[in-house]
Amino acid sequence: MERDQAKELLRKYREGTLTEQEKAILESWYLNVARSQDQSSDFAALEENLNSVWQSLPLHQSAVKKLPVSRPLTRWISIAASVLMVCSVGGFWLYKSRQAKPVARIAPPHTDVAPGDNRALLTLSDGSKIILNDTKTGERIQRGHASIVKTREGQIVFDLQGLPKTSEKETRQGYNTLSTPKAGHYQVKLPDGTQVWLNAVSTLRFPAVFNRKERLVEVTGEAYFEVAKMTDGKNRIPFKVVAGQQTIEVLGTQFNINSYRDENAIKTTLVEGRIQINLSGQPKKGVILQPGQQAQLAKGGQERPSESAELRVQQVDVEGVVSWKNGYFRFDQTTLPELMRQIARWYDVEVRFEGPIKEYEFVGQIERSANLSKVLKILELGGVHFRTEGKTIIVTE
């Protein structure tokens, strides 16, 4: 963009007459100027106006927790290699590289891929399978004492009708399994009232009927739980989640589990309440989490954790951890491979790297409702480049 055009847009910005398209052009130009680290006198003359734009752009308002308002532009340039944003996506993207990067070139548009949506397969204890995205809203499926209903919001609800006191033998009659594919997520309300959100490529296995001693479920992939309290007389019925090598005992709470097989650790994050995490066969190494804490268990080459395995506890940005449930990708010093694994799961694509993987770090958020082409465009603007072959994204540099 020519300087005269930039000055005209700045004038219209100050007068409040910018259109949405002009605002996007101005923001994009501003970010490109910042990335160029041009310290010429012309640039210095515009710095005051540019800083004014920065303070008020939607990008800055979203990023205020990451970049202090008082930081001058020239200092900001030296700290953040680049900042990227596409207005139409409805989110912001802050990109950091550990290496200096040239101004990115714009790659040709990619074949577009729609984002994921509500889709899942429910396998009932009798072996029957229900494709939930084909199930009509309000449709009721009866199975013994339980009925299954799909709500208007796309959630499935298990409703136990007149369930008698069950014996241990009766409650072992079978398990239901809810599984999401790539590009799918789903929400379920279990028979005890517990609500579970499943991210893409995840599985929840739970009893057809919970017994009166404990509520035990198993998870792979990523899930968010809002656990309902349940009692048998005066006795609390514990809720337990098995995720890989660990068992989580819940005391009426909200928490997130990330246990994807292609990630290097199982991460359990407590949002509200209290949970206790125990390692399989190693009860002495259990930990109790407080809200805002995350326990990480590094994965080894064995099914069971080694005697040296430890649960590492740290404070985390809970909002960022559960952002997927609220419709966002949220990154906090996320590496490029980790980011691309999230993209692969949500858009049902394969990712391949050509050459060495550079040490990028990403900070920011973007709506998961964006098409894949917009997400890739943002990455390309930051210096990451791709080519596509069918449903495979090849990271070329």
Can you put this structure into words, describing what you see?
With 397 residues, this protein is of the alpha+beta class. It has two domains: 78 residues, no CATH class; 205 residues, Jelly Rolls, CATH 2.60.120. It contains nine helices and 28 strands. The protein has a 19-stranded mixed β-sheet that branches. Strands 1-2-26-24 form a four-stranded antiparallel β-sheet. β20 and β21 form a beta hairpin. α1 packs across α2. It starts with a helix and ends with a strand.
Describe the structure using short key phrases:
single chain, 397 residues, alpha+beta, Jelly Rolls, 2 domains, 19-stranded mixed β-sheet, 4-stranded antiparallel β-sheet, 9 helices, 28 strands, globular
Structure in a nutshell:
By secondary structure, the chain is α+β, with helices and mostly antiparallel strands.
List the helices and strands and how they pair.
Layout: H1 3-15, H2 20-36, H3 41-56, H4 58-63, H5 73-79, E1 82-84, E2 92-97, E3 117-118, E4 121-123, E5 129-131, E6 140-143, E7 146-150, E8 156-160, H6 168-171, E9 175-179, E10 184-189, E11 195-198, E12 203-207, E13 215-226, E14 231-232, E15 235-236, E16 239-243, E17 246-250, E18 254-259, E19 265-272, E20 275-279, E21 282-289, E22 293-298, E23 311-315, H7 318-321, E24 328-335, H8 336-347, E25 350-353, E26 360-367, H9 372-381, E27 386-389, E28 392-395
Parallel strand pairs: 3-10, 8-10, 13-16, 25-28
Antiparallel strand pairs: 1-2, 2-26, 4-5, 4-9, 6-7, 7-8, 9-12, 10-11, 11-13, 12-13, 13-18, 14-15, 16-17, 17-20, 18-19, 19-22, 20-21, 22-23, 24-26, 27-28
